[in-house]
Design brief:
Blueprint: E1 30-36, E2 49-55
């Protein structure tokens, strides 16, 4: 496991590496470019090869609708979606309301 810092090389004897992230230190959304250079037992370095990894937010937000259970006829009332949430760093940007019956 390794925590990558842009511009810093991590050297390992292993042919694979895990990119370690956590909820408090995630890779930002968007494109991230990783580079690999291999060195043989004579000290010869390969040309760099590059791979792009795109981090996407693919987790759905949670809608929570608070409404009164009963209202008097002819009385206005309030609906609230204030307790709705998205996982950080996402945020709710729009609420879509509909009367379905």
């Amino acid at each position: 496991m390794a925590t990558f810092v842009p511009g810093q090389t991590i050297a390992t004897p292993d042919s694979s590496i895990e990119v370690t992230v956590s909820p408090t230190a995630p890779l930002a959304l968007g494109r991230h470019r990783f580079q690999l250079v291999v060195v043989d037992d004579s000290g010869n370095e390969s040309e760099p090869t590059v791979a792009d990894v795109i981090v996407v937010d693919d987790k759905k937000p949670t809608a929570v609708l608070d409404a009164p259970a009963r209202v008097s006829f002819g009385t206005s009332f309030k609906l609230s979606g204030a307790r709705s949430a998205d996982l950080p760093p996402g945020r709710i940007r729009e609420f879509r309301w509909m009367l379905i019956s």
